[in-house]
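Loading example: each entry is read as two labelled lines plus one structure line.
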Amino acid sequence: MRALVVEDDATIADFVARGLREASFAVDEAADGEAGLAAAREQPYDVAIVDLMLPKRDGLSLIEALRSGGVTTPVLILSARRSVDDRVRGLQAGGDDYLTKPFAFAELLARVRALVRRASRSPEPTSLSFHGLVLDLLSRRVTRDGAPIDLRPREFALLEYLLRNPGRVVSKTMILSHVWEYNFDPQTNIVDVLVSRLREKIDKPFEQKLLHTVRGVGYVLRE
Amino acid sequence: MSSANETPAPAPERFGRTFALRIALWYATLFVLGSIAIIFLTYYLTSASLAQRDRQIINAKLGEYASAYSRGGIDGLAATVRAEQSTAPERLFVRVVDRGAEAIVLSNPEGWDPSTLETGSLRLLDGTLVVVGKSTEAREDLLARFRAALGLVTLLIVVIALTGGVVVTRSATQPIRRLTEAFRRVIRTGRVDARAAVAVEAGSNDALDELTTLFNAMLEKIEGLVTAMRGALDNVSHDLRTPLTRLRGTAEMALAGAPDLDRYREALADCVEESDRVLVMLNTLMDISEAESGTMQLQREPVQLADVVDRAVALYREVADAKGVALTVPAGATSPAATMVNGDRTRLEQVAANLIDNAIKYTPAGGRVEVATTEADGRAVIRVTDTGAGIPAEELPRIWERLFRGDRSRTERGLGLGLSLVKAIAEAHGGTVHVRSEPGRGSDFEVRLPHITPM
């Protein structure tokens, strides 16, 4: 997977690139709009992450130039502005997703993966599994090491989301928007409550714990 | 900065001046041209009618002489002329030329100068030519005096036109100059509390006064927005200081201590959580400020409050269960039409969520939180009732304030912004918030919104 990061702030570009490399992306960086446009035209990237406020050529115009040149690389827009208008303008210009600064890297990674997946259209699996934990998407049954586990709908949705991102940290915001389709943070312990209920059912009776809390960042399914 | 501020400043002034001057000049020119045309016409008509009168006199004389000639021949004519020469007040010049082209001058041969005479001639039956001349001297004299008078009048008209033009345009452009002055003051000082004076005389309700009134209204609006934004900025910068101090302190303490990986991890996690809190706080404060100042962008659409409440309740279902609080939505007694509102779905969900969050927080295990949509005073209502701790009477008026946290709420997590946001969003929708509470028995929160009847 090749990713292009067009961001003029060196610190942000650095941690985004580093994080993507850790997630086994091959990353190129560009510090201004012209360089970004040149790079994106030259090579086929699987995804581009483009800041809106860029020197020489702003992000919107970069995306428009790419699209009018027939480049279909999925673009994730980064912006410090959070108004609905800016989001709409970014998507109209040809961006595929929009993330407001400051953001959790876990969320950026999840969105980047979603864009790549959407572009490659891999077949939808019928069941998800992780170390003996199996979730059947058709019968909506969950088992661990063969033992059935009875989950309530929200718990099922949360587990499904975690199983779709094994080994990756998902933030509370991401869980809120996937499990409840809520796009604002109600600043409450809703997610903690749901996670501890799920943990109660899938981890407590077993020796090996799978669902871990990464303090300050989110939750992750790992050995 | 300075060039941007000062360069445009003289322009409106010059514009005001040249504009008034141009109007005055146009007015004066038209006035003078019109007057001169009238004067010329008068002069022309006068001189033409004087000339016509002379010609009538000459023609009458010619007729008289012709009949005298036909009666008494050349001698009879001479006698008539001579008789007239001695009696008539104004002497005429008469000349008779016979067929042989011999001039028989009958009167004043010495004054015969055709260039100063108005002449008329008649050829008699036998071919004799009679010429009568009348001096134009008196007429020219009269016209000359007339011209002099007219010249004076013209001069007077020019003077009147110019002064009148200047005076009239000055008073007509007075509102423009006041506006210009006010504009310059605003640009120069950056203060928007300046106002342009409006003429107060009755009946002076013209376009310029309207412009001035609109200008003032615009300044009023800008001043309101600027004040609101300044206030919001002050609040935000003040409110962010505390969490930023915590953030900095945590990092500093970790760095100051002995190197210890676990301690670093702990501090870093604290920092991430604290900065998330700062971000949420910043967003919420911005939302409140925007809602309060009327700049919040509401994506309005017809929204059924019952749906809003259902979603918010679903969000808190697990939390309520975990805490042992019964979260219920009573079967609606109100018709669905009464709880349709024209509003921003997400914002209204935020309102319901914040109220429910609040209620669950302050309701102990075994308690009850009831979320209902109803109708009151012709408005759609979201009502959240709890059997929780209640709010002391002295704290009631303050619970809507930003960052106010009552004695009881200090132990709970939260930013102290939830209810402020509820109030701000409700009011941005044209709604109101109400609370009744009895310490020890519970609270009853209501958000009332203007409802629409769906098509």
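Confidence is low (pLDDT under 50) at residues 1-12 of chain B.
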